[in-house]
Specification:
The chain is an alpha+beta fold. It is built from ten helices and four strands; from the N terminus they run ααααααααβαββαβ.
Length: 292
């Protein structure tokens, strides 16, 4: 019971940041972008287009469209991702309704584009950084990325090209082009805040529970693990050194795996500038290889 309470308390700062990110994203859309007919990308962009065409509640469109994508994300990224994503989207949807009655800040299209894009990028970046999301597109992109040679960013970009192309028929070509420009600004800010949607990370884990941890990493993340034998310089104790490559969105899941298996483990996570081969792709269980 104490462990559960401690775990919940540790999650409070994360949910506070997710709430702050949702506030910033909702404000960006309702007081900068939507009043000037500039749309977001992803499923939120689709929701804005449908809302413009059919009317009704923008929040309802966002929730309904994202449900199947969230379920896919849950299978790939775990229950904690699903909980944080649902919380983020519900908070975001409620705040959209709250800000919908707030007057727009400016009717200058360039000011709205720049400041709305900046605010949206910081908000979405905060949510992603804390292990949630405001748009189910990223979750599906991660799934497709694991089975293809395309990165998450490339998949999201391709998806958004179709969305902004459709926006031409609803908002006009000038607003569609402004929206595309806003997307580039937003995506760059997300990259700065959250270190990129598909930023590869190298994880090194020093542990006594190599079998348990490596099996859980493969089971829950679909990542192969290289196991190396090591010896402590001071203690002369034999240790296993695990090496694996994951995406930034999987860091929290990796932390949970390691902490649940061996609280004495030592973990380092670093950026990967380039990858040659398919080490970060998901592979069938029978292809798992452990090197010692």
């Amino acid at each position: 019971m104490e462990n559960k309470i401690l775990f919940i308390l540790k999650q409070i700062p994360s949910f506070i940041l997710i709430t702050l990110g949702a506030v910033m994203a909702a404000a960006a859309l309702e007081i900068f972008l939507i009043p000037n007919s500039i749309i977001d990308g992803g499923l939120n962009g689709v929701s804005i287009i449908l809302n413009k065409v059919f009317g009704g509640s923008l929040s309802l469109f966002i929730i309904v469209l994202n449900i199947p994508f969230l379920l896919i994300g849950w299978k790939q990224l775990g229950k904690k991702f699903l909980i944080k994503a649902i919380y983020a989207m519900l908070t975001f949807s409620v705040l959209l309704e709250v800000f919908s009655t707030t007057p727009e800040v400016t009717d200058d299209i360039l000011l709205a584009l720049v400041y709305g894009g900046l605010l949206l990028g910081v908000g979405v970046g905060l949510v992603i950084k804390e292990g949630g999301c405001l748009d189910g597109t990223e979750a599906v992109a991660i799934t497709i990325s694991k089975k293809t040679n395309l990165s998450v960013g490339q998949i999201v970009f391709i998806f958004n090209i179709f969305i902004y192309g459709s926006a031409i028929f609803v908002f006009g070509i000038d607003r569609a082009l402004y929206s595309l420009l806003m997307y580039f600004i937003t995506f760059k800010i997300i990259d700065i805040v959250s270190e990129g949607l598909d930023q590869a990370k190298a994880a090194i884990i020093i542990t006594d529970k190599e079998e348990t941890i490596s099996n859980e990493i493969f089971k829950r993340l679909g990542r192969t693990v290289t196991i190396i034998e090591g010896t402590g310089k001071v203690s002369n104790a034999k240790k296993a050194v695990l090496y694996t490559v994951i995406t930034r969105l999987e860091i929290q899941e990796l932390r949970d795996i390691v902490q649940n298996a061996d609280t004495s483990s030592f973990v380092t996570i670093s950026d990967v500038s380039d990858i040659i081969g398919n080490h970060i792709k998901k592979v069938p269980l029978k292809q798992e290889v452990k090197e010692r």
